[in-house]
Amino acid sequence: MQMPQPGDLISINEEVEGAIISEDPANEEQKYVDWSLVKVHANQNALVLEAHEAYQAHPETNGKEEITVLVIAIGSNIVEVVYNPDCMSILNL
C-alpha cells in the first residue's frame, strides 16, 4: 500500500475526524498552539504537509498498531488526521 508523502495531494472520500491546529501569529512573545476536534467532510482535497508514523496502544491486548498521522492543509486550515486508505486516496496528477 502506498503511503502519502509531503507534497502529495489527497482526496477525502468519506468523512474523517481530526484536530484543526492553529497558531497565534500576532503574539511573537508568547507562542501557543490551539486545537479543536473537527470532522473533515467528504469530497475535499488536501495537501499533505507532513506524514509520520505513530503507535496506537491497545491496552486490552497489550498490543500496538502502527498508524500514519498526516498534517494536511485544507484551504487555510491545518488539520491533523490519521491516514485511512478506506476513506482517503492519493491523487495522481
Question: What's the arrangement of secondary structure elements?
Answer:
Blueprint: E1 9-12, E2 16-23, E3 33-40, E4 44-58, E5 63-74, E6 77-82, E7 88-90
Write the element-wise H/E pattern from the N-terminal end onward: EEEEEEE
Give the N-terminus to C-terminus distance in angstroms: 18 Å
Radius of gyration: 15 Å
Provide the β-strand percentage band: over 45%
Instruction: Tell me roughly what share of residues is in helical segments.
Output: under 10%
Low-confidence region ranges: none
Largest sheet: 7 strands, antiparallel
Structural class call reads mainly beta
Figure out the total of helices: 0
Q: Judging from the principal axes of the Cα atoms, what is the shape? A: globular
Average residue-wise pLDDT: 86
**How many strand elements?**
7
- What topology, given as strand order, has the largest sheet? 3-2-6-5-4-1-7
Please explain how this structure is put together:
- This protein has 93 residues and is mainly beta.
- Helices cover 0% and strands 60% of the residues.
- It contains no helices and seven strands.
- The chain has a seven-stranded antiparallel sheet, with no helix packed on it.
- Strand 5 and strand 6 form a beta hairpin.
- It is globular, with a radius of gyration of 15 Å.
